[in-house]
């Protein structure tokens, strides 16, 4: 049985501001650094692109920072489990991104199917058409090679 290779991920460096310029609270940033390896592994399995994953992670951390600040300002009880709250926020953003990706892929496929002729959609019909054209030219090819 082949041995599994252990791969070590590079340190996941999270910015203190997301790509929209929203600040991330130092407490949330600390928790985000703690769960970053788990969140990155989870998100990369679903999304695949580490750059998109990092953007989504930073956006989630900024959103959690805003939520925590809003709760504090309105005298509501604080977030009980910040790790779980942040991870769940990341998971929701990843799911939303995956749905957007699927919708875009479906739209592209729909547009392509409208523009491509029906004959070209079936590769077997396309191959048969090419073979028939080649067969009809075959006597010419044979005559030209005998000269």
Quaternary state, please? Answer: single chain
The SSE string, one letter per element, is HHHHH
Number of domains in the coordinates?
2
- State the helix count: 5
The total count of strands amounts to 0
- Biggest sheet descriptor: none
Poorly predicted sequence stretches spanning 5 or more consecutive residues: none
Distance between the termini: 62 Å
Radius of gyration equals: 27 Å
Strand content: under 5%
Shape: elongated
The average pLDDT is 76
Kindly name the structural category: mainly alpha
Fraction of residues in helix: over 70%
Secondary-structure blueprint:
Elements: H1 26-46, H2 50-73, H3 82-115, H4 118-121, H5 123-146
Helix pairs in contact: 1-2, 1-3, 2-3
Explain this structure.
- It is a single chain.
- The protein is mostly helical and 147 residues long.
- It folds into two domains: 8-115; 117-147, no CATH class.
- 73% of the residues lie in helices and 0% in strands.
- It contains five helices and no strands.
- α1 packs antiparallel against α2 (50-73).
- The protein starts with 25 loop residues before the first helix and ends with a helix.
- The mean pLDDT is 76.
């Amino acid at each position: 049985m082949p041995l599994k290779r252990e791969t070590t991920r590079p340190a996941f460096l999270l910015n203190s501001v997301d790509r929209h310029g929203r600040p991330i609270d130092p407490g949330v940033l600390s928790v985000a650094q703690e769960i970053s390896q788990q969140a990155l592994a989870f998100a990369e399995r679903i999304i695949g692109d580490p750059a998109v994953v990092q953007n989504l992670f930073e956006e989630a951390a900024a959103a959690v920072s805003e939520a925590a600040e809003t709760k504090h300002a309105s005298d509501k009880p604080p977030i009980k489990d910040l790790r779980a709250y942040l991870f769940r926020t990341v998971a929701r953003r990843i799911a939303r991104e995956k749905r957007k990706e699927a919708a875009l892929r479906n739209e592209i496929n729909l547009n392509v199917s409208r523009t491509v002729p029906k004959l070209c959609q079936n590769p077997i019909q396309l191959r048969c058409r090419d073979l028939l054209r080649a067969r009809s030219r075959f006597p010419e090819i044979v005559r030209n090679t005998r000269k």
